[in-house]
Amino acid sequence: MQPTLEPMADLDDVYNLKILELASDIPQSGRLAHADATASARSKLCGSTIEIDLTAENGRITAFGQDVKACLLGQAAAAIVGREIVGTTFAEFTEVGAVMRRMLKEGGSPPQGRWEDLALLQPVKDYPHRHASTLLVFDAVDKAIAEIAGTTAPAPASP
Q1: In the chain, is it the N or the C terminus that has fewer CB atoms within a 10 Å radius of its CB?
Q2: How far apart are CA 89 and CA 16, in angstroms?
Q3: How many CA atoms lie within 13 A of 22 on its CB side?
Q4: Cα dihedral sign for 116, 141, 24, 121?
């Protein structure tokens, strides 16, 4: 007996109008003149990159800047993060990143609350080669948080 395969998300679900709208207007674009940490991430598969700067006080992000040269999915994720990240604690952001990784890699539930727009990226779970570019902003911010906190960032998304 053949195993039953779940259908993949249609590309129209992945590249929908809302994703296009998010990617066209990325909040917090541009670099910070004085950052507590700067980090970058790159997708080896497609070459998408992001460079971020952040400042923090008492474990809470107080300012954020980003330079995004990524595919549509990376841009959309960066847009949502750029809109929501200021005021976020390190612990909350780390948890949102973990939820995103589980959503894409394990079919987990999407983030909730003010991060719920990240659910728009849930159809990407069916396209593993797009995971790394979708998670770029999370990988870069995790590195910056680790630098400030003096810890080690989680492993980045593969290719």
Answers
A1: N
A2: 30
A3: 27
A4: negative
Asked whether residue 153 carries a pLDDT value surpassing 80, the answer given is no
CA angle 48, 117, 105 (to 5 degrees): 60
CA gap 75, 79 in Å, rounded? 6
- pLDDT digit string, tens, across residues 123-133: 999 999 999 99
For the chain, give percent helix, strand, coil, nearest 5. Answer: 50, 20, 35
Query: Rg for the chain (alpha carbons), in Å?
Result: 15
User: Could you tell me the two tokens for 35?
Assistant: 């950052």
With cut-offs at 50, 70 and 90, classify the pLDDT of residue 150.
Answer: confident
Considering the entire predicted model, what is its pTM? 0.87
In terms of residues, how long is the chain? 159
Question: pLDDT value at position 46?
Answer: 87
Sheet-wide strand order for 60-69: 37-42, 49-57, 60-69
DSSP 46: T
Mean pLDDT of 112-120: 96
